[in-house]
Design goal:
Flavocytochrome C3, Chain A, domain 1, five-stranded mixed sheet, binds flavin-adenine dinucleotide, single chain
């Protein structure tokens, strides 16, 4: 029998979290490889615009900022669901991670005196968001990729991971499908770090890249790792009408304002102090309320007005936003307001981990948007996710390296071969079956149902309907047939396979939302409009079973800050 590929640590995903984890593992002297569906620099991290948070206190009007204040803003932003020990670690280590990126060559924008510039972001008490114009993710991703190349980190490119190699409960590698050739392979490892990003594409109207299917979360869930707090789905207030491309919060951070069809600055009514820079959950609900109550423009949108910034500032700070508006909407923000509506943006929940990225399964770590540490709780603050990726990515790489160093786990070739066979069979079944169901139809119905029924405003009725609809779609998925059977770059086949996992993740979101009878952060129940700390100050943990998710709960770590009413 030929030898299967083996690395001590295998990172699945080449975005910011995956690359940072790989760099750390390499620096700690273990043999590490990255396996990624797309070339690392094409990961969704590269689309991040607005910036990355850290209390550097560089801005003129932000000199008093401290990690303590960053931690408090994050706790409050999370609607007290974030674990305060994890949040404290994140706020304390943030400046070091950002300076490290700077020293590795990330070209951050500068203040007049040459320091890293910082702009205000929603829910932040100080200008704390470091940025590189409005292309921060792109620059950070290329910076980390250079560092990975410098360390000769092996990259398996254009492989779609499908299932883990498991030995009992221990994760010992992944089986993946090679897009360019249609081959399958079992990659063995002593530890696997999942860094597969968010599930945005389970929803219609998402700002996420098409590759953000959330399948990596489904893999962990199927293997027995619980998914945490999945009912908390972030809707970004400002996405471009019609195609939902993100208009960064940085646009409001630089002074852009929201107006309804009557020309009113409506945010003054919803958040009298923070106004347009209230946290995302509040601004998204406010915009949707304006639209629902007839104060939006026909077609369902309001305006984001940047004209008051002037040409020079727009060209300097928001050039990417301007390009996108002109190319995709025919609107030049220098002369016209931008039509926007809320859209799905970020997954607060994910594979549950401790502050070192360790999941409940031995050998399985997770970091970045696919993980839930939990630092974002019920609502993530803008700029905290890029930070989460590099900070907890580093920690996951460090701990995985410590765990595997000097003590290789017993390799189980039999388990690897069995997993390989299982994946081959599952893929073959999608082509060979006699089923008539079109995967694209099922996917579209899933996405529309999630946006309509498990969206910004939720009710018991809608959520029951969503669960029923998802059950029906899963039933139809059993009779699905991939549309194309070619060997080379068969994206249709990968996406049809992943759809099965997406339906599972969607079910976890809907059932978690149905169970949680309160409103907290992004999870807004019209029928339970208040936060209920007595019953619901706890994390949801969804465990896989063939009958659907089994929901359990665990306490939130509260340290310095007792829950208070959240006012802005
Ligand atoms: C448009 C946009 C703008 C944003 N702006 C900001 C911002 O300004 N500030 C901020 O803090 N946050 C921002 N965010 C959020 C932030 O960018 C993301 O949460 C973060 O970059 C996710 O990084 P990641 O490394 O976890 O995953 P990703 O960058 O999404 O990478 C996932 C990786 O996993 C791989 N992968 C996925 N599935 C598989 C599979 N089955 N097999 C193998 N590989 C797989 C992919 O190839 C990819 O390399 C933004 C998000 C979006 C969508």
């Amino acid at each position: 029998m030929r030898d299967l590929p083996y690395n001590q640590v295998l990172v699945v995903g080449g975005g910011l979290a995956g690359l940072r984890a790989a760099i750390e593992a390499a620096d700690r002297g273990v043999d590490v490889a990255v396996l990624s569906l797309v070339p690392p620099v094409r990961s969704h991290s590269g689309a991040a615009q607005g910036g990355v948070n850290g209390a550097l206190a560089n801005a003129e009007d932000g000199r008093d900022d401290t990690p303590e204040r960053h931690a408090f803003d994050t706790v409050k932003g999370s609607d007290y669901l974030g674990d305060q020990d994890a949040i404290q670690i994140m706020a304390d280590e943030a400046p070091a991670r950002i300076i490290e990126m700077e020293h590795w060559g990330c070209p951050f924008s500068r203040t007049k005196d040459g320091k890293i510039a910082q702009r205000p972001f929603g829910g932040g008490g100080f200008p704390r968001t470091c940025y590189a114009a409005d292309k921060t993710g792109h620059y950070m991703l290329h910076t980390l990729y250079e560092q990975a190349v410098k360390r000769r980190v092996k990259v398996y490119m254009e492989w779609a991971s499908a299932y883990f190699v498991v030995d009992g409960r221990r994760v010992g590698g992944v089986v993946a499908f090679h897009l360019p050739t249609g081959q399958f392979e079992a990659f063995q490892a002593d530890a696997v770090i999942m860094a597969t990003g968010g599930y945005g594409r389970i929803y219609a109207r998402s700002t996420n890249a098409i590759i953000n299917t959330g399948y990596g979360m489904a893999m962990a869930y199927l293997a027995g790792a619980p998914l945490e707090d999945m009912e908390f789905v972030q809707f970004h207030p400002t996405t471009l009408l019609g195609n939902n491309i993100l208009m960064t919060e940085g646009a409001r951070g630089e002074g852009g304002l929201l107006f309804n069809a009557k020309g009113e600055r409506f945010m003054e009514r919803y958040a009298p102090t923070a106004k347009d820079l209230a946290p995302r959950d509040m601004v998204a609900r406010a915009i949707q309320t304006e639209i629902n109550e007839g104060r939006g423009f026909p077609g369902g949108y309001v305006n984001l007005d940047l004209r008051r910034l002037g040409k020079q500032k727009i060209m300097e700070r928001l050039p990417g936003i301007r390009d996108i508006c002109i190319s995709f909407s025919g609107v030049d923000p220098i002369t016209d307001p931008i039509p926007i509506q809320p859209g799905q943006h970020y997954s607060m929940g994910g594979i549950g981990t401790d502050v070192w990225g360790q999941s409940e399964l031995p050998g399985l770590f997770a970091a970045g948007e696919c993980a839930c540490v939990s630092v974002h709780g019920a609502n993530r603050l803008g700029g905290n996710s890029l930070l989460d990726t590099v900070l907890f990515g580093k920690r996951a790489g460090e701990r995985a390296a410590q765990v595997v160093k000097g003590k290789p786990a017993p390799r189980n070739e039999k388990a690897a071969q069995a997993a390989l066979e299982r994946v081959r069979k599952a893929y073959a079944g999608l082509i060979a079956g006699t089923g008539k169901e079109d995967p694209n139809q099922i996917r579209d119905e899933m996405r529309e149902s999630m946006f309509e029924l498990v969206g910004i405003f939720r009710t018991q009725d809608k959520l029951v309907q969503a669960v029923r609809k998802l059950g029906e779609l899963s039933e139809r998925y059993r009779r699905v047939r991939a549309c194309y059977d070619g060997k080379k770059f068969n994206w249709d086949l990968v996406r049809t396979f992943e759809l099965g996992g997406q339906l599972l993740v969607a079910e976890v979101i809907a059932k978690g939302a149905l169970a949680r009878q309160e409103s907290r952060g992004s999870h807004y129940r019209v029928d339970f409009p208040n936060r209920d700390d007595q019953s619901w100050l706890k994390h949801t943990l969804a465990h896989y079973s063939s009958q659907g998710p089994v929901l359990k709960y665990k306490p939130v770590t509260v340290a310095k800050w007792q829950p208070e009413a959240r006012k802005y």
